[in-house]
């Protein structure tokens, strides 16, 4: 993209921002981010996580790990004769984490949520589906609790699904329903809620039969909503574009080069890359995984090196083809999270060898990797600062509204196990702060001042305008120095993910079209108007975080509710 000069400063014609060079401030680079332990133990292991629009994260593992380290309140106990481990259990297997106060409280789940899936409904309620044993076909909902309400909890509906959904994937649709696909020995999909009163029904998807091998390697398929409203579904090493309304495969994509599996238990990860304003194309990135046969080999004590490659494909091209890229190091069981600046993806957690499964990896991947999709090939990956906590099987990560990543979980054992093992069950929560949160960038960080970041979510409609006022401290220096210049800012809109088993379901980032930016009378304060996505195929109804971005440095987000 062409750059033009304003005086001694470079001006980018699309991303209108405070010209930093004129302010005498250079963004920090290569810092690698920072790790902070938030809680040494929350009592449960964060196998599944979802941020809600009240800035609380719902966390849960499984009921049959045994007794957790978090007691249920007021002497409450779970008495379940179908429970296979502890039929009388007075400990919690779910928790609500309050980001602002760095506190947590126990939640009550009755049936087993092991290896389940979820979406957030348009009204902001977490809808969790499936699990194991007595939870195979159950649906559980968790509303976003009102401020000060420490009594709200899970609601559960028995046998609300048509098929057992264990290791399935959910994707929110433009009409707000959840598309639920796959699971162990389930080669079908269904919708929740159903479109009418006829009840739940499972519909055959032969693609899942075609991609199954002796190790399975097609569980937790990667599903992304394409900009045309169809679903991109990836399993093992193949992908289709699926018209769920007509139950029809509308496109079959080439096999990902090399043929090695990328889905559970050879767990790689995938993201739909950030969508440009009024997008005409969409790209998917798949990274990591394990060579064919790796899962079986772990049972004999052989831990093969994980895959070091990523595949990237424009799913909207008339003749799509995978482009292969190489990460700095191999990775399996990694999580891929879109960062709010719209320019970076972080690959975090996981191992460098083995696969998902009990005791099936030996070498943790301690260092996150940043991927910058708009950089030139060969210059897209950068390794970041490492943690000292292993995040292996059953770990997870989600983006928070302040731009940090909440990281938790890791239990590669069949039960909770805290001693005499190399990698004990992990009950801690960490925050990973990417380099853009380094204090050296504080003067460049935008702050949204209207609407208030701490206020209620802003209601918006498709195609409507949203006006944002924001301040940038460095702009005051630029003005005072006589060389400052202000132009357009970039604004991003991010759907928070339901993350489990190396896939952040429903994750989505859109760059919004900024139509007007102007300086206000207050020093260092500006106003910009952006256009909301035009259709629900681009942004399904629900709650999103909106960020103002100065260069690559995002503000704290605000919540918006599009419907």
TrEMBL record:
Domain Galactose oxidase-like Early set: 445-562
Keywords, alphabetical: Signal
Domain named Glyoxal oxidase N-terminal: residues: 47-436
Leader sequence segment: 1-30
Protein name according to UniProt: Galactose oxidase-like Early set domain-containing protein
């Amino acid at each position: 993209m062409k750059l033009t000069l304003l005086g001694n400063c470079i001006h980018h014609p699309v991303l209108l921002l405070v010209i930093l060079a004129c302010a005498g401030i250079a963004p920090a680079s290569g810092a690698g981010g920072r790790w902070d332990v938030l809680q040494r133990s929350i009592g449960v292991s964060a196998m599944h996580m979802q941020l809600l629009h009240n800035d609380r994260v719902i966390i849960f593992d499984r009921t049959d790990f045994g007794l957790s380290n978090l007691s249920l309140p007021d002497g409450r106990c779970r008495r379940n004769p179908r429970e296979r481990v502890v039929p009388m259990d007075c400990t919690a297997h779910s928790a609500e984490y309050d980001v602002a106060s760095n506190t947590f409280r126990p939640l009550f789940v009755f049936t087993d949520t092991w290896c389940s899936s979820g979406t957030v409904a348009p009204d902001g309620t977490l809808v969790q589906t499936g699990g194991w044993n007595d939870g195979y076909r159950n649906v559980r909902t968790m509303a976003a609790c009102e401020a000060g309400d420490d009594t709200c909890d899970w609601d559960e509906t028995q046998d609300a699904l048509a098929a057992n959904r264990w290791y399935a994937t959910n994707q929110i649709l433009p009409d707000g329903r959840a598309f639920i696909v796959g699971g162990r020995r389930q080669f079908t999909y269904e919708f929740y809620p159903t479109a009418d009163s006829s009840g739940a029904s499972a519909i055959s998807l032969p693609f899942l039969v075609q991609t199954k091998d002796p190790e399975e390697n097609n569980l937790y398929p990667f599903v992304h909503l394409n900009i045309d409203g169809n679903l991109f579904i990836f399993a093992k090493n193949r992908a289709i574009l699926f018209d769920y309304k007509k139950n029809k495969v509308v496109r079959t994509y080439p096999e990902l080069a090399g043929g090695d599996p990328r889905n559970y238990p050879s767990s790689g990860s995938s993201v739909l890359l950030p969508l440009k304003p009024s997008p005409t194309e969409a790209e998917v990135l798949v990274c990591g995984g394990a060579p064919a046969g790796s899962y079986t080999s772990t049972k004999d004590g052989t831990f093969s090196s994980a895959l070091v490659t990523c595949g990237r494909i424009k799913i909207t091209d008339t003749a799509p083809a995978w482009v292969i890229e190489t990460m700095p190091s191999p990775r399996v069981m990694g999580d891929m999270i879109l960062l709010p600046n719209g320019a970076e993806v972080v690959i975090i957690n996981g191992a460098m060898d083995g696969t998902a499964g009990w005791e099936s990896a030996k070498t943790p991947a301690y260092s996150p990797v940043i991927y910058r999709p708009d950089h030139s090939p060969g210059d897209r990956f950068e390794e970041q600062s490492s943690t000292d906590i292993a995040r292996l099987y059953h770990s997870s990560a989600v983006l928070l509204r302040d731009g940090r990543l909440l990281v938790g979980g890791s239990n590669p054992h069949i039960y909770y196990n805290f001693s005499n093992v190399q990698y004990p069950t992990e009950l801690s929560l960490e925050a990973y702060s990417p380099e853009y949160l380094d204090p050296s960038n504080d003067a460049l960080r935008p702050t949204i001042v209207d609407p208030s970041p701490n206020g209620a979510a802003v209601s918006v409609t498709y195609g409507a305008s949203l006006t944002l006022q924001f301040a940038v401290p460095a702009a005051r220096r630029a003005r005072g120095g006589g060389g400052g210049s202000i132009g357009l800012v970039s604004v991003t809109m991010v759907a928070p993910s339901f993350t489990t088993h190396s896939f952040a379901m429903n994750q989505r980032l859109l760059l919004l079209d900024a139509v007007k930016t102007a300086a206000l009378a207050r020093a260092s304060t500006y106003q910009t108007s952006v256009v909301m996505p035009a259709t629900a195929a681009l942004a399904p109804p629900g709650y999103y975080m909106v960020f103002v971005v100065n260069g690559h440095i995002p503000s704290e987000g605000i919540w918006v509710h599009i419907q």
